[in-house]
Amino acid sequence: MDFEFDVFRLGELTHGQPLYYLSMHLLQYYGLIEHFNIDVDVAKAFFREVEANYRNLSYHNSYHAADVLQTVNLLLLSDPQMAQNFTKLEILAACIASAVHDVDHPGVNNNYLIQSSHPLAILYNDLSVLEYHHASKAFEIMQKPGTNIFAKFPNDQKREIRKQMINMVVATDMSQHFTYINKLKSKISAAALKLQEAPDRALVLDMAIKCADLNNPAKSLEACKLWAFRIMEEFFQQGDRERLNGLNVSMFMDRKETNIPKCQIGFIDILVTPLFESWSQCIATDFTRLCMKNIALNRSHWESILDKPDAIPTFHPPDAHILEQELFATTGSPATLKKKLISMQKTGGSGDTSPDTFRQRGKGNSLNTKGKSPVGPISKNFQKPSLRSEPSRPIPEDGSRNTLFAKPDNKQSAVTPRMGRRTSGVVEMINPIKASALGRNLPELPKSDSSSDGAP
């Protein structure tokens, strides 16, 4: 069984919409659309809107969300015996929570938002700031009839899936990392983990999204390096913002001082290995064993290049004006936050929310960076794959257009998944399970035929 999953290849085949296609594929594959009588067009609109609200960042983008979604799928559901422990409502919650877990991420962490008195930190009282914002943003998207994926659910189901989704998204807050690990270890050591009971299944779902969120070292070496360099790029840009605004530069975010291999080794030893070890004691599948093997191999790689600076790409800082613009305009706001920000502007409340530093972001658009990407270029041998592109709008050779949040041409039909027989090689990449195992045919993802315009 081949578990290798190339989210960037999926992005190419889906015209830069890996999250949308993968989400629809999995909901169809597990029979969730039919079981819950979900309106297919509403589901499509919901996932398009979610993907559009991921920003053009080097790491926390819709490709990362698709990768987390697929990894949760493999961790929990790639083994049919394990999959049968979970209800369809729990599987649906896991899929949607994974898809939205970083929606509208601004590219800085909770500590930055708190230290800079960001309006989001004020709104959420410094508690799991980003995580509550991601969950809130997802349910904000659902407020419209055309994107309310739970519109036909009974109220008790709505409450249950909402609770599970919020819990899963909040579980990705690293400040509670070891709390979750210790909960699972205590259950395992006492032989008290019983997947027949809902609270224990909820804990496993929380741990699954945590493993998926930190799964970069559990990938093949090339994928591990690619994602590691992407997250370091975001780290360094946060360090630039911290220095610009007179804040202490966070550990591992100073581009002048950080040793990337040493940083990755610490990440693996302190956070990733304990997490996956506890998971492997609970869920001993082929995929879990592969993850543990890759973690050991990737750690050895980083150790082998500790003193080889030529093995690390060069990271260039973005223009200073981009950092200044993003100081308080980093996060799109739900309706409640907008009201508080307007009030703060009038009363001179905490945080610099003057018109010059805070601007409401238009729906689906990133910051106005005058045609320049907020992500700085990387040189040497590392080439970042492009993010979202549109088949009807070729990207200029000078790369001046921000394509991630470009609005589609209204005259073009939206790209939608084809729900037919399993013919695409990408489908095998997404679900390395025999169709007979679950008794369903897989939806067909688009082929890489360049002559196709992506229309349904």
TrEMBL record:
UniProt-recorded name of the protein: Phosphodiesterase
Database matches in PANTHER family: CYCLIC NUCLEOTIDE PHOSPHODIESTERASE (PTHR11347)
Manner of cofactor binding, per the entry note: Binds 2 divalent metal cations per subunit. Site 1 may preferentially bind zinc ions, while site 2 has a preference for magnesium and/or manganese ions.
Catalytic residue positions: H60 (proton donor)
GO biological process: signal transduction
Gene Ontology MF terms: 3',5'-cyclic-nucleotide phosphodiesterase activity; metal ion binding
Cofactor: a divalent metal cation
Family statement: Belongs to the cyclic nucleotide phosphodiesterase family.
Span of domain PDEase: 1-309
Gene3D superfamilies tied to this protein: 3'5'-cyclic nucleotide phosphodiesterase, catalytic domain
UniProt binding sites for Zn(2+) 2: D102
Organism of provenance: Rhizoclosmatium globosum
Record: residues binding Zn(2+) 1: H64, H101, D102, D213
Enzyme Commission code(s) on record: 3.1.4.-
Binding locations of AMP: H60, N61, S62, Y63, H64, D102, D213, Q264
UniProt keyword annotations, A-Z: Hydrolase, Metal-binding
Region of interest (Disordered), residue spans: 344-456
Recorded superkingdom: Eukaryota
Residue stretches of biased makeup (Polar residues): 344-371
SUPFAM superfamilies in alphabetical order: HD-domain/PDEase-like
Class in the EC hierarchy, top level: hydrolase
PROSITE patterns for this protein: PDEASE_I_1, PDEASE_I_2
